[in-house]
Design brief:
globular; dopa decarboxylase, N-terminal domain; Aspartate Aminotransferase, domain 2; 16 helices; 4-stranded antiparallel beta sheet; 12% strand; alpha/beta; homodimer; 2 domains
Chain lengths: 482, 482
């Protein structure tokens, strides 16, 4: 006997509220530009507005939508605002949001080929497309020995690359016997902190991670890398992994892949190339020099969820030899065995990353590529780079500001000449204004502002207004200090 | 100068296609019951239907929607079919799909409290709600020393638990110096393979993982655990981690938490409890005995994305002492520093898991809890358990079938009496019929069919029809064999 009410949302209600939510999102994008970019709530303020106890009885969806506006929205820092210039972006776009919606609606779990062949095959296919779109070396395509997979983040991709390196060099014995504390890894002083995290997770120990010096552009110094490797070999250690970055988080520095790659090849080290944000620039032939030498790498990743208008999470991780990755991460318990896997004719992506289960993330990437076309994606990348360079020109031309690093693409690192404390106050006041959101870093021990031009909807007028506000706020601050 | 066309999806188009997609999903749920559950495509078949090259120019959304029906849908194994009885489920529901849509629309990245306070605070709040809803020990709540976080999967939760155990017992020295090959970990022979994967990732080595014997219900034998720990201590090793399971993947066996917990407490080992699917049953007071002894555990996880109608991915991971987890995984580079973090008044969830970035996953969990209410969630859990027990009764009453394991909740392990090969053929023929999808395991070295009653929309008629088809197919097969 079915009771009258089975608590599920009826198809009619789903259509009704689904439409309401689509409209809410469309409205949100039409007004997000006018909202304060950085949320202004105080710690604990959102929780105070939430009921202490979960509801015993279900509540109408209208009430949830009301709370969305009244409780949640004030606690949102608007990553989708065209005035978001902080960190690296986490871009959404219309086709991507719809791809994520479809993924949720289909609700498939693609741990094995057989648990939804389309989830695996579309992913392989779209990652091969992306390899061509970025002109990656052919070895990273699935029709060779390599292939691509979607990971959640570049952090996870770095971890998988490091683990593969660890196993390759020890003949897969670390998986069996554990680390012995002799493996060493190399990054630059500017490499993303995720590699340090990965070295710790992998049981290799932070003391075995070398932070190689950088040159005046904040790019890894290959000579210093070679020397560090040599010192470790002399000490009886086993160098195994280098992470080079194409567009560091601090300043968008470009490590020299070819020189680093030659060292890695000569020395037998795994080279992972992290192009999290800037890899996307290789869509445009004129920016492909950033990946020069990538054919010497063992793995590469970039994040469409940063600069390619594809909702977080979507990191594309490529390996030149998929067997190493799979052998490093593979587990096959009885309850996952199936004919397709045993045939060897299919990819089971569960062996390509840490989690077992996986969403159908290729849909959103497919939607984005098809909606924009290669042409549309290139158009926006070029515009963003042009806007950043224009902004950099304004900084250079201004008497009271200076660039703090080269601007190879779309990130501008700059500072007011009045010193660290002044720049710190300037940053706070700018962000408190709500009109934009910038973040900072330190370069050469100095406090530096970062302006990243990469948000889906950022146009020239937003960058112009940002510069106007920065100058005006700096003038105000300077006047107050007198 | 803006060109006429900027390639973005216009707000009007987003409303139009968003509605079309919401309707497509609603239609899908109305017909999914009639689709063959397990996809029938052959390896490579989906890729063959996709164009070799990515589109140079953008394509109309109508064309993408058309390919959804013609190219993608045949390659889908329908996890949202009420006839899906395989593995453990990965349930979606109306409110959950809408929560995921909203998360994609807002597009915030919650790595830090300040990068969207609502993303962090709603997560903490809803995980405290869940702790109360499952009657977890108070120590797992955020207002004590512990707290909860959403991870992608139970695999990642196990890894984080293992890493915390590794660091706690070595005084955080493994993070610094690397593993020394002396740490040992303990699971049962029935524990999920993700723990073996985690032990390898963590650099501890599979040879240091002990698979403890189970009793006749396939639950871990605490005496055997104690002995294994003792043997390792005698050998000069350092026991550090036990994973107990509440509802194993193979047969839903319930490890005796209290006895295992006492051993862990006496011996100073970290106890992680994996309740990936079955933890949800603790919503109902009559099933809470499955978590008896959980107060002796250091960490616990369960997956609303399995049995609580919340789209994959959503694993709730709780620790009793959050400082250990944070100290294990924390990294704080300059570019992530901010006032809120420095104040110490906020949670930065980036330090609670492997990835740095994170989606606003609490939204879907919040939507589900509010839509169903505790009452509605309990209603479905009770129905699923009742249906599974009824099915188990039919198996027991049948002359030619037998149960292969106890049925504590909603998973039935059973087999035809005619032997492994017969059961294997039976499984294949059933799945080829398209009318349902079952998977298998081995228990006591015998091939066993698994029927998990947990899909959001499974009703009695689906379970009845499954049993009818199983019996009929077995009779057909038996007749053919004669």
């Amino acid at each position: 006997m079915e009771p009258k009410k089975d608590y599920h949302m009826t198809p009619e209600a789903f259509r009704l509220y689904g439409r309401a939510l689509v409209d809410w999102i469309a409205d949100y994008y039409e007004r997000v530009e006018d909202l304060p970019v950085l949320s202004r709530v105080k710690p604990g303020e959102i929780r105070e507005r939430l009921p202490k106890d979960p509801p015993e009885q279900g509540e109408p969806f209208e009430k949830i939508m009301k709370d969305l506006d009244e409780v949640i929205l004030p606690g949102i820092t608007h990553w989708q605002s065209p005035n978001f210039f902080a960190y690296f972006p986490a871009n959404a776009s219309g086709p991507s949001i719809l791809g994520e919606l479809l993924s949720a609606g289909l609700g498939v779990q693609g741990m094995l080929w057989s648990t939804s062949p389309a989830c695996t095959e579309l992913e392989t296919h779209v990652l091969d497309w992306m390899a061509d779109m970025l002109a990656l070396p052919r070895k990273f395509r699935s029709d060779g020995a390599g292939g691509g997979v979607i990971q959640d983040t570049a952090s996870s991709a770095s971890l998988c690359a490091l683990l593969s390196a660890r196993e390759r060099i020890t003949g897969y014995r670390t998986n069996e016997r554990g680390c012995d504390g002799r493996l060493t890894a190399y990054v630059s002083t500017q490499t993303h902190s995720s590699v340090e995290k990965a070295v710790k997770i992998a049981g290799m120990g932070r003391e075995q991670l070398r932070a190689v010096a950088v040159d005046e552009t904040f790019a890894m110094d290959p000579k210093a890398l070679g020397e560090a490797i040599g010192r470790d070999r002399d000490a009886g250690l086993v160098p195994c992994f280098v992470c080079a970055t194409v567009g560091t988080t601090s300043s968008n520095a470009l490590d020299p892949l070819r020189e680093i790659g030659r060292i890695c090849r000569d020395e037998g080290l795994w080279l992972h190339v992290d192009g999290a944000m800037s890899g996307t620039a290789a869509l445009c032939p004129e920016f492909r020099h950033i990946l020069d030498g990538l054919e010497l790498a063992d793995s590469f990743c970039f994040n469409p969820h940063k600069w390619m208008f594809t909702n977080f999470d979507c990191d594309c991780f490529y390996v030149a030899d998929r067997e190493v990755l799979i052998r490093t991460l593979s587990i096959l318990p009885e309850y996952l065995k199936n004919k397709a896997t045993e045939s060897g004719a299919v990819i089971d992506y569960r062996d390509w990353h840490v989690p077992l289960g996986r969403r159908f993330r290729a849909l959103k990437l497919w939607f984005v590529i098809r909606h924009y076309g290669v042409e549309g994606l290139r158009y926006h990348i070029r515009r963003h780079v042009a806007m950043a360079r224009e902004f950099a020109g304004w900084v250079e031309a201004a008497e009271d500001f200076e660039l703090a690093a080269p601007v190879p693409l779309n990130l501008v690192c700059f500072r007011h000449l009045a010193g660290d404390e002044f720049n710190r106050m300037l940053l706070d006041r700018l962000n408190e204004s709500g009109s934009l959101f910038l973040t900072h870093t330190t370069l050469d021990d100095r406090f530096v502002l970062r302006l990243c031009v990469a948000q889906t909807r950022t146009e020239e007028r937003h960058v112009e207004e940002a510069w106007r506000l920065i100058r005006e706020t700096a003038r105000e601050l300077a006047a107050e200090e007198k």
